[in-house]
Design goal:
Blueprint (H helix, E strand, L loop, with lengths): L23 H15 L6 H8 L3 H5 L5 H13 L11 H18 L14 H16 L4 H28 L2 H13 L5 H6 L9 H17 L2
Length: about 220
């Protein structure tokens, strides 16, 4: 089985091909714009080359596959996540980073579904380093550090994916119909009715995210 080495483990071409100059940075700029417009399924190498106004040969000089482009684009999005200065409050440092991560994911709704690929880009690694360093200051070590890192990553990616999908597919009328459906079947779903399941007029996504983050950070330091 042939495997393709991740783009991060390959050097960018040291010389440009003849013709119009093209850089990996410009390719990523255009790729992110296409992803924002069409989503992951709408990004093709042909469409990218057309938008760049270059030949496929010129494009493949810089990136070998669509996977290369996606990896580069995801790392670019992580570059939008602010990295705060480390403070004496490790939990607040984690909150700032994770909030920024969620915001970046929601600004680019295609991104949450692609996180999980080999995350070796400099922006991803720098933010993961900050996250684990903050958790270590909070007392996480060894396997617990790995577990809490995974929990936080899964939480923010899962929350962002759910919210982005819900916002994209459900208009206010659909949301109201979903709430009414649960409420009209209260006998079958008494707990869901009591807790306001699917009722974003009761508790906002922001509130639920903050409460969930608080619970995770509390669990991170409990014995």
């Amino acid at each position: 089985m042939n495997t393709v080495e991740p783009v991060w483990l390959r050097a960018e071409p040291s010389r440009a091909r003849r013709g119009r100059p093209l850089t990996r940075e410009h390719i990523v700029d255009v790729a992110v714009a296409l992803l924002d417009q069409h989503g992951a399924d709408g990004l093709t190498m042909r469409r990218l080359a057309e938008r760049l106004d270059v030949t496929a040969t010129a494009l493949y000089w810089h990136v070998r596959t669509k996977d290369d482009v996606v990896d580069l684009a995801v790392d670019r999005i992580f570059g939008d996540v602010p990295v705060p200065d480390a403070s004496d409050d490790w939990a607040q440092d984690v909150r700032v980073l994770v909030r920024g991560w969620r915001t970046a994911m929601l600004d680019h709704p295609w991104a949450p579904g692609l996180v999980g690929r080999p995350m070796l880009g400099p922006n991803v690694l720098a933010r993961t380093e900050f996250l684990q360093a903050a958790l270590a200051r909070g007392g996480c070590r060894g396997r617990r550090l790995a577990v809490v890192t995974r929990m936080l990553a899964n939480f923010v990616v899962g929350a962002s994916l759910t919210e982005a999908t819900w916002r994209r597919t459900a208009n206010p009328e659909v949301r109201a119909a979903a709430r009414d459906h649960v409420a009209s079947h209260a006998d079958a779903y008494p707990t869901l009715t009591a807790t306001g399941h699917l009722d974003d007029t009761r508790w906002s996504d922001d509130l639920l995210f903050e409460e969930g983050l608080t619970a995770l950070l509390r669990a991170a330091t409990s014995d």
